[in-house]
Each structure stands twice: as structure tokens, then as C-alpha cells.
């Protein structure tokens, strides 16, 4: 059942998402990974010493970074589906409002839908259940922030699209790349925990947090430059 | 694929699986070398050695009797720590009547090798570990070896023994003398670890009368209760302190008798642990605490002997040495007991002993008395005895020549650094022996060095020899180890070659499987990942499930009911996986921490038994609708099934009452009272016999339907009803057997596994196999095979660890190995032992066969059509179409069946050989990695503690699970799929 032989999807998916062409968009899009990684590295020591408070304190910053990324860099919702005809006619003022509201909604969805769902998923993947609850909840929040706001913003809540996202069948771009990278990074981040190096940073959930930030950044860059337009092949 | 290709692939696969056991064996002979030992008993007249050096006179016996009290798993802190129950013993230490030590027990820290070390003074190899489980094996007998027990008997003394019957197996009766090794003895069996009191009372009740008797020279006691408490509740358990007090009471009783009874005046009491225990109360490996038992010598006479000069004050209770957990006082080797006892009793030191006289004891007992002359004599005898082993190892002539050369070059230099030129253990030892002989000659000549230098020189030689001789690192047979690796590398190449064509183009499952194998290989070089291997499988399994979700979504974006089913199945899989990975805490790092079995169930035993009953009920249901469906009449089947399952439950209940009463707590009292008169052995046998009857019924039916098959009538889809194949029918019987071999708290895991198999059946892609000649069809088959292989591999390992298994010897569960076995039978016990420790992994072998089998259900269109017809709505086109399709499938299948009746074609069939090839490739990769890790890290600190046990486990996985389970059982089951 190799994917090349048939195309089972009813709706042929959208093209990879393009970053808005304006210089400020391009600038922030390039700055975004540096800011994400920088924020984490800058706070890494406190993260190791006090994961709960650090993750809690960092969450608004990351949310803001993701919000700016959505507002500044991503094409406003709806523009993708309706094609480029509308782009020209859109006015700047309504444009801004038309971006802030969906961004806000995306963050709300991230907080109340993605984070709880990812919490359950983290537990099912082996996160501690009876201890470290706050750690894992905040980990889920950060994972949600890194994986979903831009997806909600760019793709809306169309069922077919989310099916495609879940089956990894939308074309790779930096939005999807960041999500995929964060998930894989979080998963790979678990590797150092059992090693007998007796380092403080091996404790829960520091390596996972590190892995998912690194993964998000790598995924975003790879999605933007290397694998843009690819589709993951599952057979 | 052309038939010729198939045949060459099959040959390559067979070659690979012949090479694997060969490689395992060749590597093992190089890695676990058989250690030669010196035969015969040592005497005082072994005078042919070192004849240039005059000998010192026979030792004076300081004691004439010894009471050797072994308390199993007596960790050092139990006696010396602040929270100890050994109050009387501690007062003895404070008064100087007892000398305390921490004895180092070399892994494997299980009882039998430790008794060997304590009696012969040698360092038992890992081979002894295997023999520990094969206890009746006579080659492990010590009756003919040189032990301090044999020395006492040779000197005309008598021995008395009470306690762990391992001793009676190690020292069986001597045929030539026609009598038992011991004058009087009674063994207690350590079969049920839930027995905390009886095992010890059975020993203690003999002690007062034995203390009054004077016909023995050695009284040996081996108490098991403390070890049982450790296994059951850990070192902090509520029964631990009372048990320590009880043991302290025995010490008091013996000591007081030694003070009052005249014939016990010259008696020495030795209190020793054979090994320690870890934080979870288990032992076998080399974790903290496991290798540190207490060792204590006590006698009222010691108070006077440890005279003014050599007297040391011992503080007790006390704390361990800084930076350690269990290192109290001086650390000695367990083997040191042997020369100490021999010397104190005035006997020759056993030939194979690697023990060194303990300085504190020697100083205390002799230096205080006779100005060190006598003590030096003892040391000299110790050195000569050790020299014999050194020479046996390096060759007499070569060693003598080297030693003589050093004598001339040394020029009387006896300093510590005089041997700096010597290179390697052999030269070092030769040089040090040269120094020793110089010292001894000087002293014999009346002049020369003072006693202190002589002592230092002797100790230097002894300590170095002990270290070098205990260290087996130098005796690896590297060519053989490399040979093993080359063989397994060939096996890997052959295995990969046998399925490369169905592997290419790469599928998701194929890539995942390859990555898994490579990661597993890399992981074998990290000692912490070998200890914590469960994390690897627990980590990969959810990722695999996530991939399967994505794969299923990919095919179902236009079908939301399929998507819902996928999500439901995947959630159930993830949930059961998550629950089972907390079922038993395993690994080294967090051993003994909270888990479901040890923390939750003891307080929620009703829930446990409900789950167990549910598991058995599901099994009964499967027996009814699968195993005996359409074979026996409904009534007869019901009768057989219910008897079988009820007997299995009753056995499980009674066994658990004996093994882990804290999980029963009065449940099912009526059942237990009724079945009380039947011992456990016939109960287990009844279950096994009925299982055999079930298999027999299936066998008869199978033969009958085989004859129908040859006439081409088999495999019909009758009235749209599912045809149940032989593997499906056998599966519930196998499950019941494995459940019988599983500890009660693990039984519900079978329920989970059944759920998991059902869910995977939904998730794994199964394309209709209409054409087998078409190239595309071939690839599709292989894809789903790789998915089954990946699933079976992941879940075999994950369940092995969730059942409580690990890569440490301490996690081997012996409790179910003797089910239904009355007399020791090595084959039966071996099979039962493997089945009870690998129950989950074996179960998945059979589950994989069922996942691989093409389903013999009528096509969905036919079902739908039938339903519509039933509903009165005639859709004759559909019915007709379905009928046509059915006929076509039938025709294809019948021809396929007829084709496959010849054996090579049968085994050469794509699906199964691809599956076996994949498994073989994984096993070969794993073995190659383990072998390479063992070879590369052979001088590493962890070689005996982490990598050697891992190699033993890799052997068990490769031979037991892969060859017998996957290939043996699996192939038979897969072959039987045509029956029915």
C-alpha cells in the first residue's frame, strides 16, 4: 500500500504555507527560532534548579513569541483557501484585527484543548502520573505552545485538514515542521534520563523540554529550507 | 518471486539459524572459561615445592571446634548498624569477644556459588550460576573437592548440618564410604519465600541438643528466614527487626553455651551472610548491598587472645565508612574465611583457596602471643598454598625460572617498589615470590630482616596473588570470542540476505524495525541502558503505536468510522501499555520503588482477584468459542473447559496462599479448605494433564480434518461462519499454560495482552491477497509482515520487562519452576522456569502467528448481502457478486493449500519466512552487539556485574525465545494454520 500508487484523500491538500513577503515578516520569521532557543538557554540554569516555576514563568513569553509569529509571519486565516485574489484587496487595518482575533483564539484553543490532550498523551507515552504532576502539566503546556498555535492559525479547524495533519500527509512547511520537530524532539529528549551520569539536568522534565525546543527549531528550519513541500510517506 | 529465489532465501535463513546457536556456544566457551581446579586434599606434606626454602612447623590448633552459622542475605548493616536487632552480638563486638568484618561477595550473589566460596575459598564462575538452577547436577558437588569441611573429616572430625538443603546437594553422601557426608543433618527447603518462621525454627530446634553433644567438630547452621523476608518485604520490612532479634537470640544461646559447657571451651563461632540484598530485598547481581554481607568471628577466648598488644577497640553500633553504604570495619574477601578457619583449627589450607589470612585476626591471635614467629609461619603456609595455584596457572617451570631470575636481580632489595621493572601480573608475582623466598631463607638462616618486613612481603605477595587469581579477565579466550562474533556476523548477513528482496523498497515498518535493531545494538555498550533496558522498549512502543495511528488515518480520511475505530484501538493499546509498564518496577536504579504489584495490590487484593478472575473467564470463553468449537458437543466441551479453568484457578489460589499469602488474605477460604488435602504438585499436574487432553483432542481432530484436506474439502466458508484455524484453537490452551506458570499478580497482564492483540488486529494493515505472482502483491504482503514482526518484537520485550524481568540475575523468578514436579527433573524444571520467566514473550510468538494469518472471513460484501437477505431485502446482484468472489477466493486458496503440502514450499512461503528472517536479523544484531560489548569492555569494572549477566540473558533470548519459541513453536503453529 505504498502511498505513491493511490491518493486516498478526498480533498487534495493545500500547498505549503508561505511566509508573508514583507521584510518585517521575513525578519521575525528568521528571528523566531533564535528567540525561542535563546529564551530557553538563557533560563536553562533556573530550569534545572526549579523546573516548575521556570516553566510557568516562561509560558507567557513563549505564548507571546508564538502569537507574534502568527500575526507577523503567517498568512491570515482563510487566505490560503481562497487563493491569492483576496490578498491584494485586503486592507491593512482590518487585516490587523483579522489577525489578532484568530491568534487569540488559537492560543485559547492551545491552552484549553491542546494542552490537556497533550498531557494525556504524555502520560500515555510514559510520563510520571503519581508524582511530578505540575511538571508534566507545564511540560504539556509548553509542548502545546510549540506545536499547535500556528497550526490552528494557519489551518483553522477543518476536519479534513486535521486528519491530514494526524496522518502526516500535509506538505511539509515551517509550520508543520516546527510541530513535528517539537514532538520528535520531546520523544528523543527522554533518551538521556536513564543514563548513570548523575547530572542534575537529567531529571524530569528538563531533557524533554530541551529536546522539544531544539526539535521545534530544527524542524522549523528544516521545514522551511530543506524539506519544503515534501510529504511524509507512510506505507 | 521465482521459486529458485525462494529456495536460496530459505537456505540462507536456515543457515543463519544454525549459525546463531553455534556462535552463542563458541563465544560462551571463550567468555566463560572453564576453570581448572587442583584435585585432591591438601596435606602438610606437600613438600615438593620451593624446596630451597625451609618450612615452618605444623600449626598449633587454637580452636578444636567450629560453629559455622550462615544467615542468608545477612547484609553488613543488619549486624553493625544503628537499627540492628543484633544487640547481644553488638555487645560481644564491644567487649572484644567478637571480631567484625564486611566480607566482599563476588557476583553472582546467589546462595550456591557463595557457599562454594565460603567452603573452598575459590571464586566461583558464572557457570556455577547456571548450575545453581540445575542443582542436582553432580559436577557442582563439593564432596570430592578440597574444602575446610573435607579437611575436618580427613582429620577424623565429624560434621553436623541443619538448614538450607543446598548444602546437602553440594555435599552428598560419599559412595566409597557408604555414608552421608554429615554425621547428622536436616535440610530445609527454601521453596516458598512466604515462610518466615518455620524454616528457621526447624534449624533452631536442633541447636540446644547439638550444643550438649560433643561428637562433632563442626556444626553448620544455615538460616533462610531473613532472606525470605528480604525477598518479600525488602530490607525495611516489618518482620526484619524481629527476625534479626531471633538470630541474635541464637548467637546468644551458642555463645552462652561456649562459656558454660566444658567441651565447647575451645570453640569458634563464625557468623556469616552468604550475600547481602539490594534496596528491593533481592540479590544475584552486584548492586549496592548485594555484595556486602557481614562476617564475624566470636569466642570467649578471643577476649584473652586479642591481648594487650594487638588489641583493637571496636565501636558498635557504628556507621559505614564514609562514602559507602554498607562498608563497616575492614573489608575482606569471603574466601578469606577458608585459610582463617584452617589455621585456627590447625588444618592444611584447602588447595583451591584464594583466601588470605586476615591481618587483624592473625595479629590478634598470634602476634600477641608468641612474638610473631607463629603468625609468620601461618602466613608462609598460606603463601605456599597460594603459590601452587599461581604456578598451576602460569606453568611451573616458567614461573620458577622467572622467579629465580628476579632473585638474582633483586639483590636483597625487599622494598615495596623493588618490583617496578616487572611487567604484568605474572612477572610481578614472580618477583614478589622471589622476595618472599629471600625473606624466608634469611630468617631460616637466623639473621636477616625483622618480622615486620617479612610480614609485609608475605602480605604483598598474597594480596596480589588473590587479586590476580580472582580476576578471570586474563583467562578470556579471545580467539574464540572473536570466532563467535564472526559466526554471528555471518548469521546476520545470511538473515538479511534472506529477506532483503521483500524488504525493498523500504516500508515504514521496515525502516522502524531497522532503526530499532541498530539502536538496540548501540545501547548494549551503555551499561546503564543494559541495566535499564526496559526503558528502551517502553519508549519505542508508544512511538510505534503513534506511527500506526498515522498510517491508519492516512487510509481513512474519507471514512470517519474507521478513524474512530483506529483511535479507540490505539487508545486501548496505549492505556494497557502504560498500565503494564508500571505493573512491576524493574531495572537496577530504581529497584524496590513503588509499583502496582508491590504497592497497590497488597492493599487492594480484592481488585486483583477480580482482575485475575476476569482473565480466567476470558480464557474460558475463548476455550469455548475457539478451542473446542465445532469439535466436541457443547455439553462435553463445557464440562472440559470448566473443569480445566476451575482447576487452574484453584491451583493459582492455593499456590498464592503458599507463596504470597498477603495477596490472598482469607479470600476463598472454603475453596482452600476443600482442596487442602491435595498438595500443590498433583494440583498443578491435574491442570497440565487436562491441558494435554485438550491438545490431544485438537490433535485427533486435526488428523481427521487433515485427511479431509487432502481430498480438497477443507477451508470452506460454511454459511458465512468463521472457520477457526488450529493456531487460534491452540492459543487459549497455551495462554492457560502460561498463566499457570505466572505469579498471581501478573495474571491480569494476560488480559491486557489479549486486548492488545485484538487492537493490533484492527491496526495492522491486511490487504487482500488475491495475487501472489504479481510483484506489487508481494510487496504488500511483506509490508504487513514487517508490521507484525515489529509489533511482536516490541511487545515480546515490553511484556518481558513488565512481568518483572530484567537483565540482572536477581530478577529470575524460581517460584513457578517446580509446578507439578516432585522429583528433580532438569528438563521439566528448565522448561517451566523458562516458561514462567518468558511467559509474555512466548505468548506473543503465538499471537504473532495469528496476526500473520490471512483471515478466513467471508468478504464484507457477502456479509452485508447476507444481512440484507435476512432482512428480507433482496439484492440478488450483491449476493451473486459475493458468491462469485467467494468461489474465486476458495479456488485460489485450495490450489495454494495443495501447493504447500510439500515441506520446503510450505516453509518457503513468503509471509512466515519474512517474519522469521526479520526476527533472526534482530536476534543476530543484538547478539553481535552484546558479544562486541563483552569483548571490548572485558577489562571494564562492569564486565561481571552488567555484561556477563546480559550475555546469559542474550543466550536465553536467542536460543529459548527465538529458536524454540519463534521458530519452533511459531513454525509449527503457522504450519498448522491449514488444518481446520
Automatic annotation (TrEMBL), chain A:
Gene Ontology annotations for the cellular component aspect, listed alphabetically: endoplasmic reticulum membrane
Subcellular localization(s) per the UniProt record: Endoplasmic reticulum membrane
Principal subcellular localization: endoplasmic reticulum
GO biological process: GPI anchor biosynthetic process
Pathway per the UniProt entry: Glycolipid biosynthesis; glycosylphosphatidylinositol-anchor biosynthesis
Keywords: Endoplasmic reticulum, GPI-anchor biosynthesis, Membrane, Transmembrane, Transmembrane helix
UniProt membrane topology term: Multi-pass membrane protein
Top-level division of the source organism's lineage: Eukaryota
InterPro entries listed in its UniProt record: GPI_biosynthesis_protein_Pig-F
Family annotation (Pfam families): PIG-F
Transmembrane segments: 96-122, 134-154, 175-195, 207-227
Protein name, per record: GPI biosynthesis protein Pig-F
Organism: Neohortaea acidophila
Automatic annotation (TrEMBL), chain B:
Subcellular location: Endoplasmic reticulum membrane
Keyword Transferase carried by entry: yes
One term of GO molecular function: CP2 mannose-ethanolamine phosphotransferase activity
The protein's annotated pathway: Glycolipid biosynthesis; glycosylphosphatidylinositol-anchor biosynthesis
GO biological process: GPI anchor biosynthetic process
Keyword Transferase found: yes
Domain GPI ethanolamine phosphate transferase 2 C-terminal: 473-977
InterPro entries: Alkaline_phosphatase_core_sf (IPR017850), Phosphodiest/P_Trfase (IPR002591), PIG-G_N (IPR037674), PIGG/GPI7 (IPR039527), PIGG/GPI7_C (IPR045687)
A Pfam family reported for this protein in Swiss-Prot or TrEMBL: PIGO_PIGG
Transmembrane stretches, start-end: 12-34, 481-504, 511-530, 536-554, 603-624, 686-704, 831-853, 915-939, 951-976
Superkingdom assignment: Eukaryota
Recorded GO CC terms: endoplasmic reticulum membrane
Function noted in UniProt: Ethanolamine phosphate transferase involved in glycosylphosphatidylinositol-anchor biosynthesis. Transfers ethanolamine phosphate to the GPI second mannose.
Protein name in the entry: GPI ethanolamine phosphate transferase 2
Amino acid at each position: 500500500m505504498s502511498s505513491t500508487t493511490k491518493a486516498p484523500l478526498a480533498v487534495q491538500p493545500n500547498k505549503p504555507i508561505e511566509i508573508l513577503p514583507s521584510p518585517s515578516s521575513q525578519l521575525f520569521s528568521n528571528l523566531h527560532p533564535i528567540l525561542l532557543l535563546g529564551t530557553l538557554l538563557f533560563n536553562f540554569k533556573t530550569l534545572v534548579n526549579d523546573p516548575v516555576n521556570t516553566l510557568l514563568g516562561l509560558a507567557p513569553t513563549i505564548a507571546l513569541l508564538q502569537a507574534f509569529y502568527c500575526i507577523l509571519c503567517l498568512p491570515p486565516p482563510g487566505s490560503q483557501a481562497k487563493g491569492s485574489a483576496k490578498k491584494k484587496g485586503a486592507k491593512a487595518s482590518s487585516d490587523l484585527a483579522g489577525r489578532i482575533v484568530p491568534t487569540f483564539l488559537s492560543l485559547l484553543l492551545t491552552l484549553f484543548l491542546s494542552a490537556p490532550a497533550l498531557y494525556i498523551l504524555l502520560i500515555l507515552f510514559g510520563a510520571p502520573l503519581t508524582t511530578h504532576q505540575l511538571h508534566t502539566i507545564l511540560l504539556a503546556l509548553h509542548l502545546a505552545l510549540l506545536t499547535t498555535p500556528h497550526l490552528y492559525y494557519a489551518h483553522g479547524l477543518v476536519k479534513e485538514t486535521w486528519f491530514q495533519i494526524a496522518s502526516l500527509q500535509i506538505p511539509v512547511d515551517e509550520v508543520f515542521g516546527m510541530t513535528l520537530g517539537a514532538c520528535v524532539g520531546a520523544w528523543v529528549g527522554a533518551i538521556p534520563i536513564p543514563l548513570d551520569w548523575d547530572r542534575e539536568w537529567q531529571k524530569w522534565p528538563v531533557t524533554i523540554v530541551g529536546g522539544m525546543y531544539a526539535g521545534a527549531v530544527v524542524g522549523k528550519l528544516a521545514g522551511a529550507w530543506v524539506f519544503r513541500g515534501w510529504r511524509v510517506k507512510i506505507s | 518471486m521465482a521459486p529458485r529465489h525462494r529456495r536460496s532465501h530459505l537456505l540462507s535463513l536456515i543457515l543463519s539459524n544454525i549459525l546463531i546457536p553455534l556462535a552463542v556456544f563458541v563465544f560462551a566457551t571463550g567468555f566463560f572459561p572453564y576453570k581448572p581446579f587442583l584435585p585432591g586434599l591438601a596435606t602438610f606434606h606437600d613438600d615438593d615445592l620451593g624446596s630451597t626454602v625451609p618450612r615452618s612447623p605444623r600449626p598449633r590448633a587454637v580452636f578444636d571446634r567450629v560453629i559455622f552459622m550462615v544467615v542468608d542475605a545477612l547484609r553488613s548493616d543488619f549486624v553493625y548498624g544503628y537499627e540492628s536487632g543484633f544487640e547481644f552480638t553488638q555487645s560481644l563486638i564491644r567487649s572484644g569477644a567478637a571480631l567484625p568484618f564486611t566480607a566482599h561477595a563476588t557476583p553472582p550473589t546467589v546462595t550456591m556459588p557463595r557457599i562454594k566460596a565460603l567452603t573452598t575459598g575459590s571464586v566461583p564462575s558464572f557457570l556455577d550460576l547456571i548450575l545453581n538452577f540445575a542443582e542436582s547436577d553432580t559436577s557442582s558437588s563439593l564432596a570430592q573437592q578440597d574444602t575446610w569441611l573435607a579437611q575436618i573429616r580427613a582429620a577424623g572430625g565429624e560434621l553436623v548440618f541443619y538448614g538450607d538443603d543446598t548444602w546437602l546437594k553440594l555435599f552428598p553422601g560419599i559412595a566409597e564410604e557408604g555414608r552421608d557426608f554429615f554425621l547428622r543433618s536436616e535440610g530445609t527447603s527454601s521453596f516458598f519465600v512466604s515462610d518466615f518462621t518455620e524454616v528457621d525454627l526447624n534449624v533452631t530446634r536442633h541447636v540446644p541438643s547439638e550444643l550438649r553433644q560433643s561428637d562433632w567438630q563442626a556444626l553448620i547452621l544455615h538460616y533462610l528466614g531473613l532472606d525470605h523476608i528480604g525477598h518479600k518485604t525488602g530490607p525495611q520490612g516489618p518482620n526484619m527487626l524481629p527476625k534479626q532479634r531471633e538470630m541474635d537470640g541464637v548467637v546468644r544461646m551458642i555463645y552462652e553455651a561456649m562459656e558454660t559447657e566444658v567441651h565447647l571451651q575451645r570453640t569458634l563461632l563464625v557468623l556469616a551472610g552468604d550475600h547481602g540484598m539490594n534496596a528491593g530485598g533481592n540479590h544475584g547481581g552486584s548492586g549496592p548491598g548485594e555484595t556486602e554481607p557481614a562476617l564475624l568471628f566470636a569466642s570467649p577466648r578471643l577476649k584473652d587472645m586479642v591481648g594487650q598488644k594487638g588489641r583493637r577497640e571496636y565501636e558498635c553500633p557504628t556507621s559505614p565508612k564514609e562514602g559507602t553504604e554498607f562498608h563497616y570495619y575492614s573489608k575482606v574477601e569471603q574466601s578469606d574465611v577458608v585459610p582463617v578457619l584452617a589455621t585456627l583449627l590447625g588444618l592444611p589450607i584447602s588447595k583451591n583457596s584464594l583466601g588470605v589470612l586476615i591481618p587483624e585476626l592473625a595479629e590478634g591471635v598470634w602476634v600477641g602471643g608468641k612474638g610473631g614467629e607463629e603468625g609468620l609461619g601461618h602466613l608462609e603456609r598460606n603463601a605456599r598454598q597460594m603459590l601452587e595455584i599461581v604456578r598451576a596457572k602460569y606453568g611451573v617451570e616458567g614461573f620458577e625460572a622467572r622467579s629465580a631470575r628476579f632473585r638474582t636481580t633483586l639483590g636483597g632489595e625487599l622494598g615495596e617498589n623493588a618490583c617496578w621493572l616487572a611487567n604484568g601480573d605474572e612477572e610481578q608475582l614472580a618477583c614478589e615470590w622471589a622476595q618472599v623466598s629471600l625473606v624466608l631463607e634469611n630468617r631460616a638462616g637466623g639473621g636477616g630482616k625483622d618480622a615486620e618486613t617479612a610480614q609485609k612481603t608475605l602480605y604483598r605477595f598474597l594480596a596480589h596473588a588473590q587479586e590476580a587469581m580472582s580476576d578471570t579477565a586474563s583467562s578470556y579466550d579471545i580467539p574464540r570470542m572473536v570466532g563467535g562474533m564472526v559466526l554471528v556476523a555471518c548469521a546476520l548477513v545470511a538473515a538479511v540476505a534472506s529477506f532483503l528482496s521483500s524488504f525493498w523498497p523500504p516500508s515504514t515498518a521496515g525502516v522502524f524495525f531497522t532503526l530499532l535493531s541498530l539502536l538496540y545494538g548501540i545501547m548494549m555498550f551503555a551499561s546503564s541502558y543494559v541495566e535499564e533496558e526496559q526503558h528502551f522498549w517502553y519508549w519505542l512502543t508508544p512511538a510505534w503505536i503513534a506511527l500506526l495511528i498515522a498510517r491508519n488515518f492516512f487510509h481513512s480520511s474519507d471514512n470517519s468510522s474507521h478513524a474512530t475505530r483506529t483511535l479507540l484501538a490505539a487508545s486501548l493499546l496505549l492505556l494497557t501499555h502504560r498500565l503494564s509498564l508500571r505493573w512491576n518496577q524493574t531495572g537496577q536504579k530504581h529497584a524496590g520503588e513503588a509499583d502496582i504489584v508491590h504497592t497497590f495490590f497488597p492493599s487492594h487484593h480484592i481488585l486483583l482477584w477480580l482482575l485475575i478472575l476476569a482473565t480466567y473467564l476470558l480464557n474460558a470463553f475463548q476455550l469455548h468459542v475457539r478451542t473446542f468449537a465445532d469439535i466436541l458437543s457443547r455439553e462435553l466441551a463445557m464440562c472440559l473447559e470448566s473443569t480445566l479453568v476451575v482447576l487452574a484457578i484453584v491451583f493459582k489460589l492455593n499456590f498464592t496462599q503458599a507463596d504470597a499469602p498477603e495477596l490472598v488474605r482469607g479470600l476463598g477460604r472454603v475453596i482452600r479448605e476443600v482442596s487442602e488435602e491435595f498438595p500443590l504438585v498433583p494440583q498443578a499436574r491435574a491442570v497440565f494433564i487436562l491441558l494435554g487432553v485438550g491438545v490431544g483432542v485438537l490433535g485427533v481432530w486435526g488428523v481427521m480434518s487433515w485427511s479431509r484436506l487432502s481430498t480438497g474439502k477443507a477451508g470452506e466458508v460454511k454459511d458465512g461462519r468463521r472457520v477457526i484455524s488450529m493456531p487460534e484453537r491452540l492459543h487459549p490452551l497455551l495462554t492457560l499454560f502460561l498463566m499457570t506458570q505466572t505469579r498471581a499478580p501478573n495474571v491480569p497482564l494476560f488480559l491486557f495482552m489479549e486486548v492488545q492483540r485484538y487492537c493490533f488486529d484492527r491496526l495492522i494493515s491486511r490487504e487482500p491477497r488475491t495475487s501472489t505472482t504479481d510483484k506489487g502483491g508481494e510487496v504488500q504482503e511483506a509490508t504487513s509482515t514487517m508490521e507484525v514482526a515489529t509489533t511482536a518484537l516490541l511487545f515480546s520485550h515490553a511484556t518481558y520487562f513488565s512481568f518483572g524481568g530484567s537483565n540482572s540475575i536477581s530478577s529470575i523468578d524460581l517460584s513457578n519452576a517446580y509446578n507439578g514436579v516432585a522429583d528433580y527433573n532438569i528438563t521439566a524444571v528448565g522448561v517451566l522456569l523458562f516458561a514462567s520467566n518468558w511467559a509474555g514473550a512466548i505468548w506473543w510468538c503465538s499471537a504473532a502467528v495469528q496476526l500473520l494469518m490471512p483471515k478466513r472471513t467471508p468478504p464484507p460484501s457477502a456479509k452485508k448481502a447476507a444481512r440484507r437477505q435476512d432482512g428480507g431485502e433482496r439484492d440478488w446482484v450483491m449476493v451473486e457478486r459475493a458468491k462469485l468472489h467467494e468461489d474465486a477466493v476458495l479456488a485460489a486458496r485450495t490450489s495454494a493449500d495443495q501447493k504447500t503440502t510439500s515441506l520446503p514450499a510450505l516453509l518457503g512461503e513468503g509471509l512466515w519466512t519474512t517474519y522469521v528472517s526479520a526476527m533472526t536479523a534482530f536476534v543476530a544484531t543484538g547478539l553481535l552487539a552484546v558479544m562486541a560489548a563483552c569483548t571490548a569492555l572485558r577489562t571494564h569494572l562492569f564486565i561481571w556485574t552488567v555484561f556477563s549477566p546480559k550475555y546469559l540473558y542474550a543466550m536465553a533470548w536467542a536460543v529459548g525465545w527465538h529458536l524454540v519459541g519463534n521458530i519452533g513453536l511459531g513454525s509449527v503453529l503457522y504450519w498448522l494454520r491449514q488444518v481446520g
